[in-house]
Every structure is written in C-alpha cells, then in structure tokens.
C-alpha cells in the first residue's frame, strides 16, 4: 500500500488528507505530521486552562465565501454547514469590508473544529511534535527525518507548511528544487503579527455593542473580537474570551522580541483602548511570524510539484490568492 506523508495539520493538510482518503483510486496509508502539539496551524483555537469550554480563535476568525468560490466549492460549505461546523456570521463586526454577494461563516466550536473534522474523516495516523528537518531520496522513496526518532520512508510527500519553512528543509530536497522553483518560492511573502487571547471568569460582562471591530487608528491593535460573542455563545457558566490581533508594523517591529514583552505592550494598549476591561484569568500570546500571504507564488495554480516521481508537492495559501478556498484548491492535488 502506498505510504503518503502530509506535513502540517492545518487546513491544507487536513483537507488534503480527507480528500485523498475519499478520492484516491487505491487504498493508501496516510500519515499527517505536525511540529505543534495540536492541529489547526493558523486556524488554531486556544482553550482556557481553567475551563476547556472557554476558547478563543487565535488565527483565522471567519471564512469568507465569495460568489466565485461558492460556485467552485459549494459542496465543502454545504457539508460543513449541514454538520453545524460552520454557521453564518451574524454578530456585528464593525469596520468589516463586505463585497456584494460575499457570505461570512464562523465556527461555533472554534475555527480549529474544521481541521479536526477533516482529520477525523481522513482516518490518517496523526502525529504531533513531529518536526520535519530533512527529506532525502533513498531507492525511489522519500526518507523523511524529524527532530527526534528514526527517519521514515514514504512514496509521496505533501508539504503544507509556510514556504519559508519549506525552504529551511535540509537534505536532497534542497538540491532537487530547480532554480526556477526556488525563485517562485522565494518570491512568496507573509505579513507578521501577534495575537493575544484573553479568558475571563464566568459571569464577566464586556460591555461593548459589537462582537468584533477592525481598528485603523491604533499603532498596535488592528482587530479585536469578543470571540464567544462572534460565535453566538453567551453562557453564564462559560467565561467570555477576547482576541486582539496586532497591526503588521507592530508585529514586524517586535518579531524578534520575546513574546512576554510583546504581550505586555499589547495588554497596555488594549486597556487604553477599552478602559474598564476586567482582568483576565488567563492569557495566551501567539507570534504569527508567517501570518497572511502578502505575495503568492507566481504562476502557481494551487500547488507546486517539486519532484514528479516519487511525488513531492507543496500546497497551501501561498499558491493561490485566497485562504480557505486556496487551501481547498491545493488540497485537490
Ligand atoms: C492572525 C491571522 C488571521 C487570519 N484571518 C483569516 C480569516 O479571517 N479568514 C481566513 O480565511 N484566513 C485567515 N487567515 C489565514 C488562514 O489562517 C490561513 O490561510 C490558513 O490557515 C493556512 O492553512 P495551511 O494549512 O495552508 O497552513 P498552516 O495553517 O500554517 O499549517 C501548516 C502547519 O505546518 C506545521 N509545520 C510547519 N513547519 C513544520 C515542520 N518542519 N514539520 C512539521 N510541521 C510543520 C505548522 O505547525 C502548521 O500546523 C489568518 C491567519 C492569521 C495568522
């Protein structure tokens, strides 16, 4: 049975695994490895250490379905809506730019529930804390090394991590990438920002008329969401949660600073922006070094084949211009 390794348990990796399970002409052994301790990638949902039911989306906040993508990928949206994994975003988000015909969806159980759903559907053998470091060609197969433990062999490898992390891989892969492909990969760029998630005690009131707000006049804060309100979850037993996304200039300036220092600065700015905000019981600060794609790979159509046989391919949002839908496109390869 062919052994397929998907590196990355984010949207691209999980959906790729689910599609392979459904559409592969022959049975395959599917493995998904991620360096993190949980699935989600840039669609991660953090839990309060005091109440696992209190959660906050640290990366992607909602999914925008344009009329074009609705036509192309309607079945994905229909399935996720039928299962209640996605629901229409109805809570007010101030400053959100809506184009005609666009539709926004949120995930009531947190955005990472989309990824967990696809991983479950795929039946893949999912391994966390597996950081891929090297990929070598050995007798017509890929030998994949990780930070700890022995290397393993696969017939097909799909790389779904952000492009700078692909370019850091050691071994034969570094020489197999053609000059032209290297230029394509090196042309990809990402914004950087921080996300600060805050968890509050049950019963805490955050008295603002919105569920989310885009902010244009603050050097540090770009977006705030009362995350449970965004997801229409208001309960007397589960404390509210809030997420702040910083501006890109703040993210870039503090990229190599320690996360605790950045967290303190974001917290001060938040208190000045929303005076009277109660003290959270727990916080979680995430540095998104590779946040959103600002320049996608030129002339890539959802994926880039690095080697035809054995097959080595990379995909994800860097290979299209859109996020969710781009991942769906690349996962199809
Ligand atoms: C702050 C923020 C806000 C966003 N807002 C939105 C939004 O509102 N709507 C939207 O549609 N999109 C949004 N996005 C973009 C969206 O999150 C991404 O497009 C999407 O999640 C990318 O999924 P992916 O699977 O391609 O990549 P990722 O989610 O980055 O997954 C790659 C995975 O690879 C793993 N990995 C990396 N290197 C290695 C290695 N060497 N070995 C093993 N594993 C490795 C990582 O741990 C990660 O889990 C946002 C992103 C951020 C950061």
From TrEMBL:
Signal peptide region:
1-17
The cross-references to InterPro entries, in alphabetical order and at most eight, read: Amino_oxidase, FAD/NAD-bd_sf, RNLS
The record ties this protein, via Gene3D superfamilies, to:
3.90.660.10, FAD/NAD(P)-binding domain
What would be an example GO MF term here?
A: monoamine oxidase activity
Keywords, alphabetical: FAD, Flavoprotein, Signal
At the top level, the lineage of the source is: Eukaryota
GO cellular component annotations of the record:
extracellular region
GO terms classed as biological process:
negative regulation of blood pressure; negative regulation of heart rate
Q: In what residue span(s) does the Amine oxidase domain sit? A: 97-332
Q: Which SUPFAM superfamilies match?
A: FAD/NAD(P)-binding domain (SSF51905)
What protein does this entry describe?
Renalase, FAD dependent amine oxidase
Q: Give the organism, scientific name.
A: Ailuropoda melanoleuca
The gene for this chain is: RNLS
